[in-house]
Design goal:
By secondary structure, the protein is an alpha/beta fold. Helix content is 54%, strand content 17%. A 4-stranded parallel beta sheet has the order 3-2-1-4, with helices on both faces. 20% of the residues are buried.
């Protein structure tokens, strides 16, 4: 029994070492969702940051079912730079430390406007 207990303790320690703590900024983007699914299947701990609370909660539930050891969320407008420090504080409080950061946030320009501007510049 003592040998089994020691083996179990070693297995748990190995799991903790291999588990990553991952901060995902822009967590509701398609690429972030797919990366999160891979990490969840490995049993990693995930902290999801996004603007849409309903969407991030759906993702959180899905990732828990897929095997994430822990999933926490934080909703904020990433375009508001004054909120970035709090975002990081919340992430570190949730994860303890961060091994990987995925930034999948950005803004998209109006496609039609970009095409027109490009066409004017090449003519």
């Amino acid at each position: 029994n003592m040998v089994r207990l020691e083996s179990l303790v070693r297995a748990i320690k190995t799991l903790r070492i291999s588990m990553k703590r991952i901060l995902i900024i822009g967590a509701t983007s398609a690429i972030a969702e797919h990366c999160a699914r891979i990490w969840a299947a490995r049993g990693d701990a995930l902290h999801l940051v996004a603007r849409n609370e309903q969407h991030v909660q759906v993702n959180s539930s899905d990732l828990k079912v897929r095997g994430a050891s822990e999933v926490t969320t934080y909703c904020t407008d990433l375009n508001d730079k004054d909120k970035h420090e709090k975002l990081l504080d919340v992430a570190y409080d949730a994860l303890g430390s961060v091994d990987i950061v995925l930034i999948a946030h950005g803004t998209l320009s109006n496609q039609k406007s970009c095409e027109l501007k490009c066409a004017r510049n090449t003519s």
